[in-house]
Amino acid sequence: MHRKFIGLLLIMLIIIIGLSSFLLSNSNYFDRTSNLKGINVDVNVAEITNNSSNRSNYHIITVGNTTDELDKFTNFEGKIDDNGIKVTLNTEKLSSEGKTIDLIVKINNTGNYSIDNIILTWQYTNKSVGSINPGEVKTFNTTTRIPTTNEFRADFGPEANVSNPYFIGSFEAKYLLNKGIFIAASNSVEIPLR
Predict the structure, then answer these.
(1) Is the pTM of this model over 0.70?
(2) Is 115 within the bounds of a domain?
């Protein structure tokens, strides 16, 4: 139990350091090397349209339509901030060490005003989202790899272990509304490992 707690603390420390580094730097927020993929979902007609601005490294997400495929993902509702912006993080319900997993992030504007200059951040990845009108939802897909115990020990010492469940911290959406800057955070997730 003590080892799991230390492992979880190390992961949280890495996330905090990465986020602090991002917030304190004046780096270019438009990191075009990230593997985030963007689509725009028109909620009224359930039509998926490309929102990639012709950048070859962003693609439309295709999510299967069978119950089995949809059941492999968690179904968290996310958090709504004071301006009506909801950021949701979902991922696979079960995984294992050494596996690359899909992360699905949705930004839903349930408020009454458009939000602009949206930057979606997670760990060392930043994605410019543009603007989202009231009632609009934008969905993004990225991946992360769960390290093996050997990889984890190589980085953190011979007693370190990958936490089970594996913790993934929240995504943040930084946005502009009425000349004010706000940050809405998603839920975090814990994935049981086999």
Answers:
(1) no
(2) yes
Does 158 reside within a domain?
no
Give the CATH number of the domain where residue 92 resides. 2.60.40.10
Phi, psi for 110 (deg, rounded to 5): -90, 0
* pLDDT tens, position by position, 68-105: 444 566 667 787 899 999 999 999 989 999 999 999 99
DSSP per position, the chain = -HHHHHHHHHHHHHHHHHHHHHHHS---S--TTS--EEEEEETTTTEEEE-STT-TT--------SHHHHHTB-----EE-TTSEEEEEEEBS-B-TT-EEEEEEEEEE-SSS-EEEEEEEETTEEEEEEEE-TT-EEEEEEEEEPPPHHHHHHHH-TT----SSEEEPPPEEEEEETTEEEEEE---EEE-B-
Reported as half-sphere exposure (CB side, CA atoms, 13 A), residue 93 has a value of 9
DSSP-derived pairing of the beta strands 189-191 and 180-185 = unpaired
Q: Which domain holds residue 115?
A: 28-147+166-191
The CA-based angle 28-62-42, given to 5 degrees, is: 75
Rounded to an integer, what distance in angstroms lies between the CA atom of residue 33 and that of residue 178?
A: 30
